[in-house]
Amino acid sequence: MRTDYCGELSPADVGREVKLAGWVNRRRDFGTLTFVDLRDRTGIAQLVFSKGEREVHTLNREDVIAVTGTVARRSEGNVNPGMKTGAIEVHVNALTVLNRSKTPPFLVEGDGSDATEETRLRFRYVDLRRERLQRSLELRHRVFKSTRDFFSDNGFLEIETPFLTKSTPEGARDFLVPSRLTPGSFYALPQSPQLFKQLFMIGGIDRYFQIVKCFRDEDLRSDRQPEFTQLDLEISFPNDKEDVLVILEGAMAHVFRETLGVELDRPFPRVTYTEAISRYGTDKPDLRFGMEICDISEVVANSEFRVFREAIGNGGKVAGILAAGCSSYPRSKIDRLQEIAVSAGAKGMIWLKVEEEVSSPIAKFLSEGELASIREAFSARAGDLILLLAGQGIERPLGELRLAIGREKKPIDDGFGFLWVTDFPLFELDEDGNLTSAHHPFTSPRPEDIPTLEERPLSALSNAYDLVLNGTELGSGSIRIHSRDLQERIFRLLRIGEEEAQERFGFFLRALEYGAPPHGGFALGMDRLVMMMANERSLRDVIAFPKTTTGSCPLTDAPMPVSDAQLGELGLRLNERR
Question: Is the pTM of this model over 0.90?
């Protein structure tokens, strides 16, 4: 039906007869001539129809047509330098209308801002025709292909794991699937292939990877979907975590080189969890801008200012960030920053504008020497703004302030800053004050912390690591526990009793007794990676058929009720809503 794609025609094709097919992007009538922009996946070609072709006047946006014509060079005054095929046009001698289209609910050209997101998702088959979305999906394909190429070339085997499996705690709610053959029993859709990939290592596979769908029933947002795609990998006999980190860095370097032509600096910087919190106020810092947290507790330790004095006296600190060149911020903007700090947990925010002198609402409570010492501690210059918080747990609010200012000054597409964060706590406390895994219960502690796990569990650090890109966590991994004895000790600390452990993890504990090798791995969110590479702000712009923030699909109206007959086959009955 076609010999060429629209966007691939060039002046080299002038004089050649071609067959094209696609969608009408728009039509323009000029008396004896009619111009039609024909669009396919590769771009747009301008078609020229003479007066004799009557059917062309009936064409509307999104009608599907096929044409035969001759490629011609545009006259010098009609060349469109902003169009990929702007130097040529196709003089049509035959037109076939393949299908008519109703008036689309929104324009395909542009960024889709003329429609709500729900409308775009309801008519996703129209939305998919937009150049921006097609570009993202093409990038997604190339990222996936280059990822597979890298791991295949480095001795990894891609092996599928089951979708219908057993419910195990992974940090979120499972999607459950009722079993018809075993009434009252349920499969769970996997939150990750965690235990299966560890079984691969026990089974001698040595190097495994998979680009796999995973499922989590959790509250959604712009960078979270109920079904998502992750790169999953595991290796046997790693030299601690170094082997895993080196492999991931190589994979990222390969993918960025092959898909974007970007060379990444390696090795990626590394900070410990403790360093990340103290320096940046978050365990996923954006390194594209500085603004590190500066602790000035020693500088103001003897201050007469009550807020500083009470904060330090009660075991807290006084710390802040320097917003270079931001002393011109109006009061409304500073008030907004204060709201950000308070919503993140701070009791309040103190600001100092640095000019020839330092001006601040608290300036009258501080001596000239203290103001000068604060300025010196931040290396502040005229035109800078200092933001201070006082108290306990002020690192995360400072981190939010840092992001609010830094990301305003740094656009979303300003380079790629990779970072490894290591040495996370092995445990943390849940809302009830009980121990819970900071990553997951199969993460190995650092060897030096194993002897004192029961005595000092909250002091134990894990052999875990996160990969961060521009302040977004791409994925996490760890060296795994490969001893049944150690795994059962971790379960006991997590209040998973012997009976529950046997019921939920018996198959895995049994496998650990049959020569489990040391192993470690990683899971990386591919949707999130593509989103950042495409400079998009939402996962929904790099996934073909995403869900809304309520987990629904406007296109198919899923989820939806099922018949009583279907429920009966599964031995289920719905409770009446109260």
Answer: yes
